[in-house]
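Good day; I would like, with your permission, to put a structural problem before you. What I wish to show you is a protein chain and, alongside it, a tokenised description of its three-dimensional fold. Please examine both parts with care and let me know of anything in them that strikes you as inconsistent. Thank you for your consideration; the sequence and its tokens are set out here:

***
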Amino acid sequence: MKRMKNFGFGTQIRKSPYFDATVRWGAQGFSVYNHMYIPRDFGDPEQNFWNLVNSAILCDVGVERQVEIAGPDAAKFVQMLTPRNLSNMAVGQCKYVLITNAHGGILNDPILLRLEENRFWLSLADSDILLWAQGVAVHSNLDVSIHEPDVSPLQLQGPMSGEIMRALFGESIMDLRYYWAREVKLDGIPLVVSRTGWSSELGYELYLQDGARGDELWEKIMAAGEPFGLKPGHTSSIRRIEGGMLSYHADADINTNPFELGLDRLVDLEMEAEFIGKFALRRIQQNGVERKQVGLRLDGPPMRGPNTTFWEVSHDGVTVGKVTSAIYSPRLGQNIALAMVSVGFAELGAVLEVEAQGGPRLATVVERPFFDPKKQLAVASRQLSDVGHPEPLSEFVA
């Protein structure tokens, strides 16, 4: 493929440090996320899925912009942003958190990294939390500095990702536990490496701290991964829906609260610390929710690609919700979906109708996640058991 020198809409949409490398390696299409291009097409999305679950893929996720919060009051300020109790978060640990507004609505669902006692990164989903955090800080009377650092993540995901990391960094990297991070260098390239990722598979994220070396880093990883079947790829909609992982703006937004998503574990209303939305979330918990997220299995032939609009969910001709993410899983041989429906229709086994692309389909409410519900693939690995650090399944809530 020829290099797309003039690809794009102008300077308002940024390219990651890996953009040219992804084009060289076969990226054929992009979408926009956090005002940046993200590769979304390396050919057949089903083959991309099989590459992920059978070997490994390398994904440009430089769009996961970082918000750095540092200073003497950084820990207190970060706690103000999220309903998750961070009092026991250690330096080097990562946690999945929700950022909520005063009404309890979800503004973002980032990974929080504690790099130092008083320095944190929020690794973002698709919304402008840098502006939110800077706005919150204005009248907080807390001593913090907030900015976007020169940091661009890559995701190395799949069952062979551990062996590729061993080839890159040596044996010492194999004791990195699930949802932990450390600073390392690869031939002088400054990185933060974490055992995290958006795939529900064994995986790592490599946070490049020098954007000028993006092309070099990409090529080093691809070269190290070649003996292990590494392929360039993109985040897999099939795998993330199988794993019940949220996509912000699809499965959650500013009008969605944690209780509707079943994420009560990420809300601590009893902790002493105050956080934005605490009063509203307490009221929602007391009053109950009117809708809930469910998993659906859709009848009919395999769907072609993911949904690009919200599909109406109905019962006896009355609208009761919407499908937020839908896909055909070739591994399960099923059409699967995440949906938000009225609580009265959220019981397992409920039969509903979905106005899908191509016509109506019957749908049954089923358990989610659809595959590997205890996240054993992401949490445990042969490499970790070799060094005696198997991670408890409860750590998935980290």
Remarks:
- The chain has a mean pLDDT of 93.
- DSSP finds ten helices and 21 strands in the chain.
- The longest strand covers residues 318-329.
